[in-house]
Design goal:
The complex is a heterodimer of chains A (153) and B (858). With 153 residues, chain A is an alpha+beta fold. Chain A is built from one helix and four strands, in the order αββββ. Among the domains of chain B are: 204 residues, no CATH class; 245 residues, no CATH class. Helices cover 25% and strands 21% of the residues of chain B. In chain B, the strands form eight sheets. In chain B, strands 6, 7, 8, 16, 17, 18, 19, 21, 23, 24, 26, 28 and 29 form a 13-stranded mixed sheet that branches. In chain B, strands 1, 4, 5, 32 and 33 form a five-stranded antiparallel sheet that branches. In chain B, strands 20-22-25-27 form a four-stranded parallel sheet, covered by helices on one side. The longest helix of chain B is centred in the first third of the chain and has 70 residues. Classes of the chains: A alpha+beta (153), B alpha/beta (858). Chains A and B meet through helix 1, strand 3 and strand 4 of A and helix 1 and helix 4 of B.
């Protein structure tokens, strides 16, 4: 009497799993890439937010403060590869504290007075800001910039 | 069968597996696509933000460029802007030619600037060297100036304040500004003298060229004010807009009491004087009411006093002015001096009905002022025919002649007379702000000697009105040098009785058809027609250089002071002594009270607000940087300060002093220009917006001295100098460490009225005097003059070192700026005016963004 087998044989299962696994491999890459892009987009938004707020803050300081900063570094505005952490306003503990996640971002700020003809005192300061962060297998950077002017000179 | 089923199961599993794989692949691809799209959208959002930052940066650079261009007073763009602004007008006022005023057309400036791409080099540098990945590009930057209109200033918005109009005038325009040739008046200011506002609009287009095409149109606009920083009342060394403060005009006794209190305080305090140093032939002085100003009549002087007190001495053989040309500040009965001397201005009895009165109820311009001003403006001046007095005819005889004379055709001159119903010698009634000039018969071409017949029916006996003491007169001293015929002619003050052509009232005088109407002076300025030929000053005073060195050799003066000439010693004003009010018609509303560059609302012109002096911008040398109109909560200056630039410091409120803050405007030090190009208007009008009202006295006549002093500029110390056009609502309070210089002391210092100016110069009289007094270098404007509150002496020098007041003629002689401006009237152009107004106007761009708009691929 022939015993009728029900379901899959071991070999069949193995073959199926093999085929499925082979098929899943590129899909996993797809999912991984998708996840990466989502994370990159999130980081981009954060970098944009950091850049936008920093540029706005620097612009709001006005020409005279920035000019003094260039001469004395009194306010610690100019820096290189500084981690984004702590309070948004360092001297104010009531201000918003950057989330732990932001520590992966680093900022670099440079200020430069634009020389004028005829030895006149400068009335423009060029502000450059770079926000860097590290993705799992790649470094990202977003550049911002503006010009702060002094009216009435 | 079974085998078949076995194979059948195997095939199904593969299909399921492949199907699941396919489904997962599809999901994965979809997810991938979704993530990619999300990232792309995020990136675009990021780029848009960056694009806005770039556009804003470019707009700022463009605004800075335009500001630099427009602040350059020699630039064509600034000239175009002033010209366009002068053609604009308030939106709710009709143009003389019909229709409403429009905004100034400044499109020519936009076209001149064109695309400003090449001017935003710093932003462009950022794009090329820093923000490189996205491929940003600025496509165009187009500026435009819109909404160009005058800053509203109430009654001064009307065009007749600035343009030739024979029928109206809201600004003070002396009668000598009347042209007999074309029958129009020429105000000191014109349409180029206003303050304006406008909007600078920048349209920036930024595009993103890599990967995706994005284009953002960014529109930013900022406010601009173009402000006239010229001195207030630049032609006047001293200008008192409302004269003496009176609270209640309806009570004769109170009025008299107040005037007496104001002008003749019964206190033991020292009585400060106001010394006004004018530039000969050019400076003016204006004091509103309460009376007319008569020349002391030499005809009645004692023989040995004529030369000292006579205005125009007809007995010295040369028929010239005496050493001291004294203008007495007095009161009038119907234009008749209360002084008992017989030789006063006399009026015909028909005077009250001899002219038209078309302007009786003109009050429209007053609405902007509210009730505070109305009382000051409801009287009018009238004119009529009068006659010169004659020394050969005594008073009563002359009065009888006037009364009996009904024929006016032979009368050669017109006079002004107050005709308020209750003529109480009010300090602020416009009727009484007409000065009078008396000149002996030799002064005028018509002579008009003899035959004066006083018109009067209620004249007091002469003994009731005594001549005031010498110490309470208003002196204007003029030096006449007869040693050289040319000098003699040109230093002679041709003071005489001129017709006063105030047009609100005197159009009727014109209507009398008097063919002998003459151009005249309506205030007691020196004779403007008596121009200074080159060299005359030198002949009188020596060389200008030595003059400056001799008179003003103070080390603290940062400039070369050239002022000299007529010295007005405002010691005291004669108190009113008139008892009887006279009946007459009610007077016309009359509001042309304001001097040049007057603002009815300084707040509208403010460009920056500060709490106090410490916040005023300073340069590396510690000088104040003036640029525009600064509004301070309070001002206390301790120590010396210099300033650079042109600007106004305005303090518009007063709060009681608390812990060193607030309190009255107090200066304990020098405020001086660092160079000849800098100018300051210092304005203290502590009214409105706080708890102050205008009343400084109660109805019992008691002076609220603390309150008054708080409303005055307080100058504390000795020898302090304020180089500015000083405008103070209640005048200046001086508190010197030294006592005032009495006449003897002044004489001992070298100011001996029997000696000439050269001798004054050699004695260094002014320098010595200033060491014991405080002074204003510039000019002095107030609403009310409280001489009894001034306490110590104040000297005012018309600042000839500043081009806003004075220029130089071809011979290098000092010449008042108004002369230069008036050349345009003769040449039918605006070249001189435009040059002057360009120099006095400051353009201020607000750094704040007024409006922001973004359109495009958002």
């Amino acid at each position: 009497m022939i015993k009728i087998k029900k379901g899959f044989s071991t070999a069949e299962m193995l073959v199926t799993v093999l085929i499925f696994s082979l098929g899943m491999l590129p899909l996993i890459v797809l999912f991984q890439n998708s996840h990466k892009q989502t994370a990159q987009a999130k980081n981009l938004v954060i970098a944009q937010s950091i850049g936008r707020s920093m540029i706005s803050e620097i612009k709001a300081m006005g020409f005279d403060v920035l000019s003094e900063e260039i001469k004395t570094s009194k306010y610690g505005l100019m820096h290189s590869d500084r981690e984004v952490s702590g309070y948004t306003v360092p001297s104010d503990e009531n201000s918003i504290e950057y989330p732990e996640y932001y520590k992966r971002f680093k900022t670099t700020v440079t200020l430069k007075e634009v020389e004028r003809d005829g030895g006149k005192p400068a009335n423009k300061i060029q502000v450059s800001l770079k926000v860097d962060w590290q993705e799992p297998n790649r470094k990202f950077a977003l550049s911002f910039g503006t010009v702060v002017v002094k009216y009435g000179m | 069968m079974v085998f078949f089923r076995y194979h059948s199961k195997k095939g199904f599993g593969s299909i399921v597996a492949i199907g699941m794989l396919a489904l997962l692949a599809f999901m994965g691809l979809f997810l991938m696509q979704s993530s990619s799209a999300e990232y792309t959208q995020t990136a675009v959002s990021v780029y848009r933000t960056m694009g806005r930052q770039i556009a804003e940066s470019a707009a700022d650079e463009a605004c800075l460029f335009i500001e630099e261009e427009l602040k350059n007073k020699d630039s064509e763009a600034f000239k175009m802007l002033i010209e366009a602004a002068a053609q604009s007008g308030p939106p709710r006022i009709d143009k003389p030619s019909g229709g409403k005023w429009t905004t100034g057309n400044a499109s020519g400036i936009s076209q001149k600037f064109g695309d400003l791409l090449s001017k935003v080099v710093s932003t462009d540098d950022l794009l090329k060297n820093h923000i490189t990945k996205a491929g940003f590009e600025i496509e165009k930057i187009l500026p435009s100036i819109v909404d160009l209109r005058p800053i509203p200033q109430g009654p001064l918005d009307y065009d007749y304040c600035y343009t030739k109009d024979a029928s109206k005038s809201s600004v003070y325009t002396p009668a000598d500004r009347y042209s007999t040739n074309d029958g129009v008046v020429f105000p000191f200011d014109n349409e180029y003298s206003k303050d304006w506002y406008c909007t600078l609009q920048i349209d920036v287009t930024v595009s993103l060229k890599k990967n995706r095409k994005i284009k953002i149109n960014y529109q930013i606009s900022k406010d601009i004010k173009i402000l006239n920083i010229a001195p207030i009342a630049r032609n006047y060394t001293f200008f008192s807009i409302l004269g003496v403060f009176i609270q209640n005009f309806n009570d004769q006794n109170e009025v008299n009491k107040k005037i007496n209190e104001a002008l003749n305080p019964n206190t033991d305090e020292e009585k400060g004087r106001l010394f006004v140093l004018n530039q000969p032939f050019q400076s003016r002085v204006y004091f509103h009411g309460p009376a007319v100003i008569n020349l002391e009549n030499p005809n009645i002087s004692k023989d040995d006093e004529r030369n000292a007190s006579g205005a125009y001495n007809i007995f010295d053989g040369e028929e010239g002015p005496g050493q001291s040309m004294a203008y007495q500040y007095s009161d009038t009965f119907f234009g008749f001096s209360y002084f008992t001397d017989k030789d006063r201005c006399l009026f015909h009895k028909n005077i009250a009905t001899s002219w038209n009165d078309n302007d009786k109820n003109r009050k429209d311009d007053l609405s902007a002022y509210g009730s505070a001003y109305e009382d000051f403006l409801k009287y009018k001046t009238r004119m009529g025919f009068g006659k010169y007095p004659d020394r050969e005819v005594d008073f009563l005889e002359g009065a009888g002649d006037v009364i009996g004379d009904t024929v006016t055709s032979g009368w050669k001159d017109t006079y002004s007379v107050g005709t308020a119903k209750n003529q109480k010698f009010l300090p602020a009634g416009p009727y009484c702000r007409t000065p009078w000039y008396y000149v002996g018969k030799c002064a005028g071409p018509d002579g008009a000697s003899g035959n004066y017949t006083p018109h009067w029916n209620n004249i007091k006996e002469p003994t009731e009105n005594l001549d005031p003491d010498d110490g309470i007169r208003f002196y204007m001293e003029h030096r006449w040098d007869p040693s050289d015929p040319e000098v003699a002619e040109n230093t002679l003050i041709k003071a005489r009785i001129f017709p006063i052509k105030y047009y609100n009232s005197t159009r009727s005088a014109k209507a009398t058809g008097n063919a002998d109407n003459k151009s005249g002076l309506c205030d007691f300025c020196l004779d403007l027609y008596n121009t200074d030929p080159p060299g005359v000053l030198g002949k009188i005073f020596g060389s200008v250089g030595s003059l400056a060195n001799g008179f003003f050799n103070l080390n603290s003066l940062p400039f070369q002071m050239l002022v000299d000439g007529v010295v007005t010693i405002f010691r005291k004003i004669v108190p009113a002594k008139a008892e009887n009010a006279q009946s007459a018609d009610s007077e016309t509303v009359y509001n042309n009270l304001f001097p040049t560059n007057y603002k009815t609302d300084y707040l509208r012109t403010v460009t920056r607000c500060f709490e106090n002096e410490s916040q005023i911008p300073r340069d590396d040398n510690g000088n104040w940087i003036l640029d525009g109109v600064y509004c301070l909560d309070y001002l206390k200056v301790n120590g010396n300060v210099h300033y650079v630039g042109n600007g106004t410091i305005y303090i518009g409120k007063y709060l009681p002093e608390i812990n060193g803050k607030y309190g009255p405007l107090t200066i304990n030090g020098d405020i001086l220009a660092a160079d000849e190009k800098s100018h300051l208007n210092l304005v203290y009008i502590p009214t409105g917006g706080n708890d102050f009202d205008f009343v400084t006295r109660n109805f019992s006549g008691e002076s609220l001295k603390t309150e008054i002093r708080n409303r005055m500029i307080n100058i504390i110390g000795t020898g302090k100098m304020i180089q500015a056009s000083v405008v103070s609502f209640y005048g200046v309070y001086c508190e010197s460490e030294d006592s005032n210089l009495d006449k003897t002391t002044l004489t001992n210092l070298g100011m001996d009225t029997t000696k000439n100016y050269s001798e004054w110069k050699e004695a260094g009289a002014f320098s010595k005097a200033l060491n014991s007094s405080n002074c204003i270098i510039g000019n002095y404007v107030n609403y009310y003059t409280f001489m009894e509150e001034q306490k110590n002496d104040l000297w005012v020098y018309h600042d000839t070192s500043n081009s806003f007041y004075f220029g130089k003629d071809d011979a290098g002689q000092c010449i008042i700026a108004q002369y230069i401006l008036d050349l345009d009237n003769n040449n039918n152009n605006n070249e001189q005016r435009l040059d002057y107004e360009k120099s006095t106007h400051e353009l201020c761009l607000s750094p704040k963004i007024q409006h922001l708009g973004i359109t495009g691929d958002l």
